[in-house]
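In this supplementary section we document a worked example of the pipeline. Step one takes a protein sequence of length 502 as its only input; no multiple sequence alignment statistics are reported here. Step two produces a three-dimensional model, which step three serialises into structure tokens for compact storage. The input and output of this example are shown verbatim.
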Amino acid sequence: MTDTLTESAQQETPALPEELGGWRIAGLLAERTGAEVTMADIEELVAREHLVVGGYFKGRPMYETAAALALDENLVRGVVAERMAWEEASLPRDAAAARIGWHWRDIERMGQEGRITLGKGGRYLIADVDALAAEADGEQYITAQAAADVLEIRHPADWKYVEAAGWITPADTYEREVGRYRTVTVTLFRLGDVRAVRDMPGVDWEAIRGLPKGAVSPLREYAALAPTRAAVVKGFAQALADRHGTTVWAWNSPYSGGWELDWERVGGGPTKAEVLKELLADPAAAAYAGEIALCPEWGEVTRAARELLVPDAAVILDTETTSLDGQTVEIAVTDAATGKKLMDTLVKPTEPISDGARWVHGITDDDVADARPFEKILPRLRQVTKGKTICAYNASFDRGILLGDIWRAGKKPTHLEPRDSWFCLMEAYADWIGSHRWLRLGGSHRALGDCQAARNVLITMSKGRGTTFTPSPAAPGDPIPGPPADTVLAATALPAQATPEP
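The serialised model returned by step three reads:
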């Protein structure tokens, strides 16, 4: 009788297939553990190598049913709990934008720049979003129509002259679909820059506001002078590049309203004093000398970044740790010039990984259980960094972590200890963009991915700001470019009202 009941039960409960899709596997694990397992949890189990993709059906991954059912229930519950904790502490992009009244493009951009934490599922940390509303007010991007509304002027009748006057420059653009087959380019402006225009002295905004349709804009007189300055400054920058055979950067700063110039030093020159001498000697550019700043802070950073990208000059390093002041659990080193991976390994610490750290980088105690301890990876670390500048995003953090590990291992730090062996990309980037606050990297929160993101920052800084001018290629028969600066100065050193004799 018992055998008959067993056979009947087997017939009523058909055997499961050897492989199932992610949602079916999630359902089985949910029944087995009592947890709300989702596809995101299956993907996390795969990422942690607890579950393996066995094959594909119609392009979708399949998983071994037996292997899934053999997973430790507490492991599965832990993954679900971490995901739910993250979802509780975060919001999807559109909800994050709605929470503080920003456009979703601003939230997305801030995540890419590392200003707010972007985590799994494309979600943003609520605490960062709330802080952003206060700390970054004015950094939103708005359309020209919205910018005109802030200034309380007509669009486009008055606004076009604001742009033509050079008081503001676009921060970004995007393509918007119009109909089924056409797109238009939408120009975006930084809200803080628009507010700066509103507060500009010497402009009678009250006379401009409320003008009827068709009335001539008083802003037209300001716009008539703007192209001259831009053309003169850019012409001087190109001439400077040609005379000295060097790269020159010219940026019209939306913060000061003036131009900023810097250049690559060739054999140590030209110096700032030499360029100033040439600027004052240029009949057209000299009129704007008071509005042109030479050697801004971002220029120094740009030149340093270019030097670090020279082959064999530098490496980029990143660590993941057990806690903010803990031990290394993962380390990666890449070549700064090429991006080539030189080192990428997990490290076994002597203390457990904290919940907060695991939530950020996803590395568990089980992941590092069979990894080599720090003293075993130290020789390779010394080898790949010897004779190179060590670049890190927040160098003081990574340097402190490594020195702590070296001390615990009873080893000597050698070239890893001196501060001048390190270059902080985070501090440099803040100086380059003119920020006075800590900027998140926005990487993957794994060591190798963060090295790659940090290298992208280094490359961005190496490109300078504004427009880049390089020496014009010489055509056959062209004369040798430009007389020396002293000759130019002597030829143009005439009294202000003097007229040369015929």
